[in-house]
């Protein structure tokens, strides 16, 4: 049975949107296993001076790249997609906060930019085929202005990279760490 093309496009858009947001979660939680599952084996990732080349090599280097990242917080906003059968392209707007340990103390970098994405559906599953980061602006605070010890946050759960993040204990349906 063939679906109405409009319904198929909605299903494809939703699966690609879930792929995009899964990337944000995997990056922020330093979940490299999950990150690997989002790309095709022959995919390319261009992350500026940080890395440019095969996505699987990028993911292999993530522990080193993320080692000094105390906080990563990726947010996507506008998602523009064009779908043609089993191929799609996306221009995805993002805001990404990075708090990094530096020799003189932590710094904050808030980047406003876009992902230029190419996706491909193989064996019924959409994954990244090519992802390139485009920086449109950056706001840098040196030293950091983030204060997680402020009384306003007293008693709140505090996010962390990896499985020590409170989401791993809180959620059961979202299946963190699998």
UniProtKB/TrEMBL annotation:
Where do the SnoaL-like domain residues begin and end?
Answer: 8-131
Pfam families given in the database record: SnoaL_4
SUPFAM superfamilies the record matches: NTF2-like
Q: Which domain of life is it from?
A: Bacteria
Q: Under which name does UniProt file this protein? A: Nuclear transport factor 2 family protein
